[in-house]
Amino acid sequence: MKPQLHGANVRARCPNCGGALTTFESAANRVEYGAIQVDHEHKHGGYDFNRIVYQLMRCAGCGRGGLAEVHCEDHFSKGLLDSFFPRTIEQAPLPEAVPKGIESEYREAEICASVEAWRAASAMLRSTLEKALEDSGYKRTHWQRISTRPRRMA
Ligand SMILES: [Zn+2]
Predict the structure, then answer these.
(1) In the predicted model, is pLDDT for residue 151 greater than 70?
(2) Which of 56, 85, 114 is the last residue of a domain?
(3) What distance in angstroms lies between residue 66's CA and the mean position of ligand 1's atoms?
(4) 20 and 79, same domain (yes or no)
(5) What's this model's pTM, rounded to 2 decimal places?
(6) In this predicted model, what pLDDT tens digit does every residue of 5-21 receive, in sequence order?
(7) What is the Å distance from ligand 1's center to 63 Cα?
(8) How many Å lie between the centroid of ligand 1 and the Cα of residue 92?
(9) Cβ(72)–Cβ(79) under 8 Å?
């Protein structure tokens, strides 16, 4: 799920809360954490706006900080959320038998993809696939299976 603006808060997955869907709040006890406002007429996503607000936020679960970039007219809560930090990703489930080295490389590929570093993500996925093949007994030169030992991955 992509982060979404809900009133003055953002609903997003928090990496510090194990990827749980949580609310990042823009204020505590009605006092805002702080924001930078840039006023200028512009178009974004096909709509007209007159300002960009960079709003500090805080995870309601663990307290981790966040930053929302919202394009809006007069009211932040009626704006369009353009980006949100921390970047959050939904991790693909992997079988428990996947070796830790291969899993960590795959997770790094997911992180690259989450920041739209497509070439880096592709390179990491290719490397992950090569290591998975080698771990399953395939030879790198022609990717032919040379071992008769059972596969470690399901
Ligand atoms: Zn959190």
Answers:
(1) no
(2) 85
(3) 10
(4) yes
(5) 0.67
(6) 999 999 999 988 877 89
(7) 6
(8) 20
(9) yes
Report pLDDT digits (tens) over 58-74.
999 999 999 999 999 98
| DSSP letters for 87-141 | ---PPPP--TTS-HHHHHHHHHHHHHHHTT-HHHHHHHHHHHHHHHHHHTTEETT
**Average pLDDT of span 53-58:** 97
Assigned domain for 116 exists: yes
The answer to whether residue 131 sits within a structural domain is yes
Domain of residue 105: give its range. Answer: 100-145
Looking at the structure, do residues 81 and 129 belong to the same domain, yes or no? no
The Å distance, Cα 17 to ligand 1 centre, comes to 4
For residue 150, tell me if it sits in a domain: no
Same domain, 63 and 131: no
* Residue with token string 């007159």: 50
In tens, the pLDDT along 92-107 reads 889 999 999 999 999 9
90: in domain: no
